[in-house]
Specification:
Length: 142
């Protein structure tokens, strides 16, 4: 149950953040806004680390697959693409497309067992669910 609640909070926060970042970009520029987002995220994470586990900061470099360290780089491009899509499509339509894209890519990762994720069996009902999501976007757009 907590997983569902946390996922719902995550989605809500992503939508709110996208709107905030789009407005900051209007007053500054894309890369200044993106830098601010990443910088403030760093400060929050360092503060949370200081008050919680205080594990070894350099432990991230002990990861077996070094490409997994590119999450922050991907995060910068996520911020960029969210800002651009919200500015061009509006928050609701942008989030609909973002969520469906996340769903399709995540299911593909599970099906193929990519990046160390346990391989999942193909299920028609999941494919149907994605098709319904896409149909919902088309209906929402009209």
């Amino acid at each position: 149950m907590w997983g569902i609640i946390i996922a719902l909070i995550s989605g809500a926060l992503m939508s709110i953040q996208g709107v905030f970042n789009t407005e900051v970009t209007k007053a500054t520029s894309m890369w200044i806004s993106n830098s601010w987002v990443q910088f403030t995220a760093l400060l929050v994470c360092l503060a949370a680390w200081a008050f919680t586990d205080r594990g070894n900061l350099l432990g991230v470099f002990q990861i077996e697959h070094k490409y997994m360290l590119l999450g922050g780089v991907i995060g910068a491009f996520i911020t960029f693409t969210v800002i651009k899509s919200m500015a061009q499509l509006g928050p609701a339509q942008a989030v609909l497309l973002i969520v469906v894209s996340q769903l399709i890519v995540a299911y593909g990762i599970e099906l193929l067992g990519l990046f160390g994720v346990e391989k999942a069996a193909f299920e028609w009902k999941k494919l149907l669910g994605m098709a319904l999501s896409i149909a919902g976007i088309i209906l929402f757009k009209k």
